[in-house]
Write a structure and sequence with these properties.
- With 199 residues, the protein is an alpha/beta fold.
- Helices cover 40% and strands 14% of the residues.
- The strands form two sheets. Strands 3-2-1-4-5 form a five-stranded parallel β-sheet, with helices on both faces. Strands 6-7 form a two-stranded antiparallel ribbon.
- α2 links the parallel β2 and β3 (66-69).
- α1 (16-27) runs parallel beside α2 (50-61).
- The two termini are 30 Å apart.
- 43% of the residues are buried.
């Protein structure tokens, strides 16, 4: 299997695309950290471990291994705990899929600073925080892969979604002993080894 022996963190894996990515990685042999705060699509309201537990149950029913983490990507200390969950449960981390996102449907002149910052904190800061927390492990083991998700709202815009355009189009570009290749609306890890002297 392509990902046999690998450990993957998938943020926003309690449902939708994130769940499908987590399931696909598990089917390919990876052990998966299912990260999801279990809130609404807007990121508001009560949080719950249930969505993540449902993804975990499907993976385990299919013979895979997974653990659930409910920390938020939008906070540095929280993001470090997400990576720590992988290391504590499976001994390492090989793949980070930055999929977590929230939605604020609002036309620009009605978007509040709080709405703007909420999206920036999840989409942009969250991608940086989780990637940065994993980067130290990637450097130490000399390998790793990032997958950064975006949407058509981030690439070409969408009426009523000004908060999504900027953070999605500003996904991190990384230069480390890991690789990430971005094209169209999905980013996928490359199979090439790190170039000598990559910083």
């Amino acid at each position: 299997m392509m990902l046999e022996g690998k450990v993957a963190i998938v943020t926003g894996a309690g449902g939708g695309i994130g769940r499908e990515i987590a399931l696909a990685m598990a089917l390919a042999g990876a052990k998966v950290v299912v990260n999801d705060i279990g809130a609404s699509l807007t990121g508001e309201g009560e949080t719950s471990a249930t969505p993540g537990q449902q993804t975990q149950a499907i993976i385990e029913q299919r013979g895979g291994q997974a653990v659930v983490n409910t920390d938020s990507v939008s906070d540095w200390e929280s993001a470090k705990r997400i990576v720590k969950t992988a290391v504590d449960a499976f001994g390492k981390v090989d793949i980070v899929v930055n999929n977590a996102g929230i939605l604020r449907d609002q036309i620009f002149h009605k978007t509040s600073p709080e709405e703007w910052l909420a999206v920036i904190n999840v989409h942009l800061n969250g991608s940086f925080f989780v990637s940065r927390a994993a980067a130290e492990h990637f450097r130490a083991q000399g390998s790793g892969a990032y997958v950064h998700m975006t949407s058509t709202s981030g690439l070409i815009g969408n009426f009523g979604r000004p908060t999504t355009r900027r953070p999605s189009s500003a996904s991190p570009r990384c230069r480390s002993p890991s690789r990430s290749t971005c094209s169209a609306s999905v980013c996928a890890p490359t199979a090439s080894p790190p170039s000598p002297g990559a910083a």
